[in-house]
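thought: user wants a sequence for this fold. calling inverse folding tool.
action: design(structure=
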């Protein structure tokens, strides 16, 4: 089993143990400051009632993207992280 699979397995276990669903969940990502990449992150959550906040780094090279959204189950959270992984240069926090 690779590290990503183990990570998501642990995350799912922790979410099921510590979280009552549905829940308002906070996703945080760091992406290179590139409108296309930022838009890709936003597109993962648009039209689902998400509140999206963006903050540029001091140097302007990176942008922090925070998303508050109601999630129905742990699997949905994991699917969002997996979809975000496909965006080049993204860091999930």
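)
observation: tool returned 93 residues.
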């Amino acid at each position: 089993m690779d590290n990503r699979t183990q990570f998501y397995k642990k995350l799912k276990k922790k979410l099921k143990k510590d979280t009552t669903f549905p829940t308002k969940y906070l996703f945080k990502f760091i992406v290179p400051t590139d409108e296309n990449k930022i838009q890709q992150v936003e597109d993962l959550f648009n039209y689902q009632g998400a509140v999206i906040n963006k903050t540029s780094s001091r140097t302007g090279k990176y942008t922090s993207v925070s998303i508050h959204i109601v999630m129905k189950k742990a699997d949905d959270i994991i699917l969002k992280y997996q979809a975000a992984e496909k965006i080049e240069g993204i860091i999930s926090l």
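thought: summarizing for user.
answer: Here is the designed sequence. The mean pLDDT is 94.
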